[in-house]
Write a structure and sequence with these properties.
With about 260 residues, this protein is mainly β. It folds into 2 domains: about 110 residues, Jelly Rolls (Sandwich); about 130 residues, Sandwich (Jelly Rolls), CATH 2.60.120. The chain is built from 1 helix and 22 strands. The strands form 5 sheets. Strands 13, 14, 16, 19, 20 and 22 form a 6-stranded antiparallel sheet that branches. It has a 5-stranded mixed sheet with strand order 1-3-10-5-6, with no helix packed on it. A 5-stranded antiparallel sheet has the order 12-18-17-21-15, with no helix packed on it. A hairpin with an 8-residue loop joins β7 and β8. It is globular and about 60 Å long.
């Protein structure tokens, strides 16, 4: 049931079907009020032209498109718009409203997709997360941190401290201009030895061959993830929480992190 033109979120999946042309910026579903769900899943089963996107908002006025993650692929893939038959999971935790919008006009054919919410993380195949609490401190903006890796030689992981005291992680943006897979390991500690200390979270740094752009974005704002002791990281070639594999030579990586 819709209340004030806003539909409450549900774990029961809905189906959208349209056989007519759809103009750009037409809202196809929503706004949907998201009270407690972590993930929004959209499965496109028919589309012949154009593209759609999943957008989020906290005021039902200003909307931003979210990147989605393909759970069916053996490679990590990020998609901001959907223009072909596929499934994508979107991390909507912390956002009050969700909608689906036509971003590129659909000129003909049948458009069909299903959508719904769940409480599982958006990309469980590639993100390992230990128990974390959220940080409610939003009294200041996030401090930027950037890490660059571009070596002609194989690079062993180096434990690096971003903040030696309690920190709140707001966002991560990574880019990889090579065809070599790498992973960002975040650690809730100020000191440690790679290979001996457990990563708290592990995030894929996808190769350009798997995403076409070699970029990925992880957004935890406006609440943020609370690292109760400190915020540190290292980059390795593997996903395991104690992976110590060296990054292949000629793997240009850029990491941008926002924290408090």
């Amino acid at each position: 049931m819709s209340i004030n033109n806003v539909t409450p979120a549900s774990s029961v999946f809905s189906t959208y079907t349209n056989t007519s042309p759809i103009t750009q910026n037409t809202v196809l579903a929503g706004p949907i009020l998201n009270s407690s769900y972590a993930t929004f899943t959209l499965t496109m089963t028919a589309i012949t032209s154009g593209a759609i996107a999943v957008q989020v908002s906290n005021d039902n006025t200003t909307w931003v498109s979210l990147p989605g993650y393909d759970p069916t692929s053996t490679l990590w893939r990020s998609v901001t718009t959907i223009s072909a038959v596929r499934t994508a999971n979107f991390s909507v935790a912390g956002y009050q409203y969700v909608r689906i919008i036509c971003t590129t006009a659909i000129t003909s054919g049948t458009t069909t997709f299903t959508y719904g919410f769940s409480s599982v993380v958006a990309n469980p195949q590639y993100i390992y997360s230990r128990s974390m609490t959220v940080n409610q401190d939003e009294t200041q903006g996030y401090t930027p941190y950037q890490y660059l890796l571009n070596s002609a030689s194989v690079t062993a992981p180096t434990f690096t401290t971003i903040k030696a005291t309690r920190a709140s992680l707001g966002f991560i943006s990574v880019s990889n201009a090579s065809n070599n897979q790498a992973y960002l390991h975040l650690v809730n500690a100020a000191t440690g030895t790679v290979g001996s200390i457990d990563s708290t979270n592990v995030y894929a740094i996808p190769p350009i061959s798997s995403t076409s752009t070699g970029t990925a974005h992880y957004l935890f704002a406006p609440i943020g993830l609370n690292y109760s002791t400190a915020l540190s990281f290292y980059v390795s070639s593997g996903l395991a929480i104690r992976d110590a594999g060296s990054v292949a030579a000629n793997t240009p990586i850029t990491i941008n992190i926002g924290y408090i």
